Amino acid sequence: MRGASAFLNDGGDYLAGSGMEAAKKEAHAAAQAGSGAYGLWAGMGGGALRHKTGSYVDMKGWNLGLGWARENAVQAGTLTFGPFVEYGRGSYDSYLDDGTHGSGKTSFFGAGMMAKLETGSHWIDGSLRIGRDKERLHRACKLRHFEHLLWRAGRRGQGLPYE
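RE: above sequence
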């Protein structure tokens, strides 16, 4: 389960970074075209990370995001928002403090909404996500375990513009 949790967090990081930037770019292009419509965006990310949890999990995987985004001028600044779907797939190795080793594969599919408000002096953004996770775990003692879990997640961030 630690591998799946780490992987879902990585998917959230992707959406907050590259996914949001892709959505903003396409929403801005649609707004400049004057149609007031949503812009279609897509992106892909991936990587390898070590998640330390007392013991640790080495995670490798990739994520895909696809969505529609719209840019609206509001009194406070610029609001970008829209729905999305996401998919991720990865593998992991888990090492416990007692020497036990497990490995597995995980994948997830989800959908949600994200938004970002930018003013001249700061920004605030967030997302709500829901989906289904599939995990296949193999432990050193040859135990095999399969899980299908429903998950939900929320995220909020704020900060100053970075150039």
